[in-house]
User: Fold these one by one.
Assistant:
Number 1:
Amino acid sequence: MRFQVCSSALATAVLTVGLTGAATPAGAADRTPFLDRLHTVSTVASTVPENGDLNPYGTFVIREDKGDLHRGNILVSNFNNSVPPSGEQGRGTTLVQITPGGQRTTFATIDPNNLPGPCPGGVGLTTALTVLPGGWVVVGSLPTADGTSATAQAGCLLVLDSHGTVRETIAGDGINGPWDMTAVSSERRGGSERRSELFVTNVLNGTVAAGGAEVDQGTVLRITLSSEGDGPPKRVATTEIACGFPERTDPAALVVGPTGVALGKDGTLFVADTVRSRITAIPRALTRHDSDGIGKVISEGGSLNGPLGMTLAPGGDILTVNGGDGNIVETTERGQQVAVKQINSEGSPPGAGALFGLAVDLDGDAVYFVNNVDNELDVLH
């Protein structure tokens, strides 16, 4: 079920909180922010595979051993190909797997001419990356023909098995430039059926036609997948749960629009509104059957500066990385910005849209993140 009308483009409330002079919310327990426990940035490995793909975007820590996937390793998707000097955006076809010790292997090289289903425009792997139970890898594709936004097409979600073979594509029904994603899975009918809910941001609704002008048409879709036995998960429903996010094409970044998403413990979905430097909250994300517009703005400005990737800290705080200045920011679920750190690698220019995907390690004491200026996976620990 999908609603095509954006029912509420404006937020119901705005809370703007900076780091300076921010008060602790009434009744909140005193605790040390997660980022204040981490002190060192180290390089884990280069993300460049054998074919030379560049611009790492998606980052996911693998939770179970399955096939060629190994628990605790980090999966990374590449958005650019290797055309000099910096590759063409929307043409990267590789997923690499990296051990915490820095050993890199190529998990998959996807042939856009040999897909099992439709993916309008081909393959250009985005920040939208997750691994579902059973070792099913789902990654977004926002493809271009020549690295420019003028040739960008709708793309799809690609479903790969645990050996790196594309088994299915999920396209259409609102999927239009899938940019980032988070997911949650559960078992039903005594464990015989597994359900997964994908929350996917889309950034191409009206952007290409607008020719660089800002349009308020970015969406978040909840895509329900079902699987039984050893077969790949199949889409059973698509629901638009948020819409009206600002987005625009950009010569340097290809497109700028709603990026990071993270699901809170109470079912609230948090969204990084990159264009407006704010975080919004969509309530009842797992169960709602309508769009909440952009939801409620819980934090805006302050240390947020073009937030891109998003994940949750072990205590539930929201972690975002800035495209504008290379900082990572910690924000409570109530919207208070409680910590900020510069995490660009030494020698990298601050900002420059270098930071996209990030993920907390399985021990909950470090954050992996990609730096696409240096084409490497780094860790804050």
Number 2:
Amino acid sequence: METVGAKDTALNGLFSFLERAVSPFHAAAEGARLLAQAGYFEWNGTEREVRVGSRFFVRAYGSALLAFSIGENPRARLRIAAAHTDFPCLRVKPHAAMCERGYGKLNVEVYGGMIRSSWLDRPLSLAGKVAMRGDDPYIPVVREFDARRPLLIIPSLAIHMNRDVNKGVELNPQKDLLPLFTMEEDEADGDFFLDFLAEEIGAERDSILSYEITLYPTEKPCRIGRNEAFVSAPRLDNMTSVYACLSGLCTGEQADGIACAALFDNEEVGSGTKQGAASMLLPNHLARIYAGLGFTEAGLYADMEKGFCFSVDVAHAMHPNMPEKNDVTNFPMLGGGIALKVAASQSYAGDAEAIAIAKGLCELAAVPYQMYVNRSGLRGGSTLGSLLSRQMPMRTMDIGVPILAMHAARETMGASDQAALNRLTETFYHT
């Protein structure tokens, strides 16, 4: 069973990762840093770098990350653990600066299915990337950006001005979710947001051509509860899974076959992008790796058929105040271990064999597991597992840690579950 030391190590690593992974770009960058620290090199795409014993990674379009470990006898087995780097949030629009009687606000839009009210009245910051003019118009200069301090807030309307607020209020994103950013006395020169960006990255305002910047809560992750049985943090969906995939791949001896951590972007908006799980990103890289090793494309297809994939994403824990929202016999609990997610609709990708394999690996890793099935009559969620396995026909199982308040600005998980997930991914990759 879980030791206090292992739980602390896993949570300390997760907390450190969460504080750096404040956007998909920063999640991919921090993942690349951890991989490099573990001896992985960044692959430039040339076949001569692919050989037995190689361990390398690829950053795709800034926000996705693929990592590969090629052991002895590369065709012995193909193991893939996939997760996503994005999370529901507010994204800054172009021409974002807005003034309302001296209040400087930012024009934003909703990304993903966020719980809007959870973003009110909390300190927020900004992170993402900025694209600037370069010597070649096809190669803009790109800089990642993280303000790393509270800058914005979305204030609630006082109860005195809306006496029905506690009966439930629908928040209009274009009106009610615009964050307060500054006080502006002079609106004459236009875009105070571009002025801010230029100052932050040390560039000329006119050199900035575009940006992808999102808001994030600045409060740090913490342990809570009488015996610190819980964790409260932003972005548990899905940085718990991203961190576990990286931790599992970087820990332990290199095994036979090919092991891969595939960290995609845009899962929260359907995965249908060049860096999403429904793209050819992973199949294309695997085909190039097989070619570099001297294997045929037919060999890759054959190995997919006998390979195995974990789609790692969070699951809905039973809510203490609304247990009726969960299935009557399959309801994961915080601290109860890994959730194995099943759906007859195949919104989760597992079948009977995949469930059996997942249970066997949990037993081998000595970690607890529990089943999650949507309550009949409720649609529930989905993950990238089914989309990825459609592009790469291989047996896939959806797993993850159970959490509460999924898609809120802060979510809650069991303090012991991250260590269990880390140990499972390590066992998956290395046995």
Number 3:
Amino acid sequence: MLALHAAFLLLLVGSAAFFTWLAARDVRHATTTVTDQQDWLADTLGVEDHEELLSYHRITTAFGQLQEWVVLGGLLLVLYLGGLNLAVDALKGLGLGPVATGVLFFAGLVVASQLSGLPFSAVDTFAIQESFGFNQSTVKLWARDQLVSTVVSVVMIGLVVGVVLWFTTVLPSLWWLVGWAFVVAFLLAMQVVYPRVIAPLFNDFEPVEAGDLREGIEEVFERAGFSPEGIYVMDASRRSSQVNAYFVGFGETKRVVLFDTLVDKLDVREAQAVLAHELAHWKENHIWKRLGASALRLFVVFAALGYLVEVDWLYVMWGLPTDAVYAGLFLATLWIYPVLDLTSPIENRVSLSHEREADDFAAEVMDGPEPLADALARLTQENLSNPFPDPLYAAFHYSHPPIPERIRRLQEGRDVDASDGNDANDATTGASETDTAEA
């Protein structure tokens, strides 16, 4: 068992240390490059105060790393001080069935995770973001967001875990395969559910009103060969002054969402270019391709879960009964998650190719690269995004080519070196497991 514990700690702590090292590299690289390129930043991106950009990058990076280590330390303390054993014993005493017990266990994990994250969320919102002029949220709105997101997470995770655990009881040898198929179907369903049910719990969405912007949108849709439907403005300014946009869904449920901050801060031609980029993700079937890539990745994950949940040492390590399958799923996830993080460059490469295709499409629709290049520059300026990530850091964290690369590539009409640029919340980031992609 000592060797297994050593391997477990090496995987969790070692991967965390690796990503902290990457973050430190990124800060050093940004400090050097941003300082050297401050004239280019001012002339091309309109960033006059490069020290403010660097300060925001340093603080947010350091705070993010602090949170990662605090969470990891808390997790290891709970495990090695017997917290997991106490939880399993307490749940066993309730006399519930295996499915209900597992759902209750994971619901508790969600609540515990949300509660542990509250101090970090509060400091980020009301100290860091506030100090740089981004925060627009009130304490009441922030508290409501935390409560609603916790409830939504409990419901969604409870549903998924409940079904998967049920499969382990009725199909003990094939549960991982049918569980994988169910999760893929769930992700597809979320493309419909998220924009119509979940997103409106947090924001208001209104169709673009008649005027210059509406006319510009209709023009872009006509050029791109689409019907001008499903374009909404979201009241993002209730929470932050940062600028963005995203696309989500497919078929009749597809929609492009423009932050109201983007509508206010970009001119019509720039907004048209952002919209054209988003339309490219439909035109080139990027949603389906990303869902396919996610499904393949999930297949590997569920195959690994199917193996790990059946091995005795996973439970013996912590003195748990082997019939506590829900605890086995949790422990197996702890072994798998760092591996997923370490293989993220593979998934990012797919997204990078999609974003370049979307940039090319936008330049074609707009009869030139200038509107999109100007929009990307404005997004970087408004969001204080680091335009010069360390290349190795970017390989693990960036689903978009760096902004300087994208701008030069648009202007030159060819691929360029990705060693100096940034993701910059640029209205096209590949989003989470629901494949919600941001502008």
Number 4:
Amino acid sequence: MLDVRRMQLLRAVVTSGSVSAAARDLGYTPSAVSQQLTVLEKEAGIALLERTGRGVRPTDAGRLLNEYAAAIGEQVAEAETALADLRAGRTGRLAVRYFATAGASLVAPAVALFRRAFPGVRVDLRLGEPEDSLPELKQGGADLAIVVQDPGRLAGDGLRFAHLLDDRYVAVLPRGHRLAAKRVLDLTDLADEPWVGSEWPGPCLDSVLGACDSAGFRPDFVVQSEDYATAQGFVAAGLGIGLVPEMGLGSRHPAVVVRRVRNPVPVRVIYAAVRESSPAQPALHGLLDALRQAATAGTRTGR
């Protein structure tokens, strides 16, 4: 097998016209260069150079190998440039997993900020629930996942979690409901109401149930819906009341009213997760910074 480093030595000799000149340019001794070229000729199984006066010139085999050495040298230079661009965050790709209600108010503005700072880095976005996104992140199928997570369950598993925001739940009531006249509701005000559920089992539902447990009651779910928009429709029809996170309100149904709740305030905590083993990447850090900026901006404007 031909040694690439020896091929580059051959290229230097052919370019300079002599072993001594190539050795001087490379900082080697002429004998060291000659020894490496002898090994290369053995690897090639054919003479590569012939003497001419005080110098050397390539044989047909030497010219052929020199052309390949030049091409390899160009490819190596291109690879070094590409690696430098990747290390500096000028190029690359980041695979991101996020959940639906984080898309419009968090992910979209964050990616817009990121692209202004890292225009050459591609961001591949795909919807995913925490039960799918976190395993995919651990296995290297994604670089970052935006998830709702219990703050008490962040340790271990080879992941690092960066807090983005606390998404508060608000009460959604049918217009004309007896509690609609109050600007702020105690969570216990809802204890005896029929409830419209909008969460699947998981950290979001756990946040709601945990707050209700702290208030001393268990919600009576009379309807289960698949998403927040559907839940608002059931509430508007008078089938019950619901709790919806602020990020999940989206297009508010015209026949519902929204009121803040307290004592306690149900909150789902949103994090950006990355692998602890992920190499230092300016682009990944830049995306985390953009997510934090977007989360802070959304909090300031009341989302």
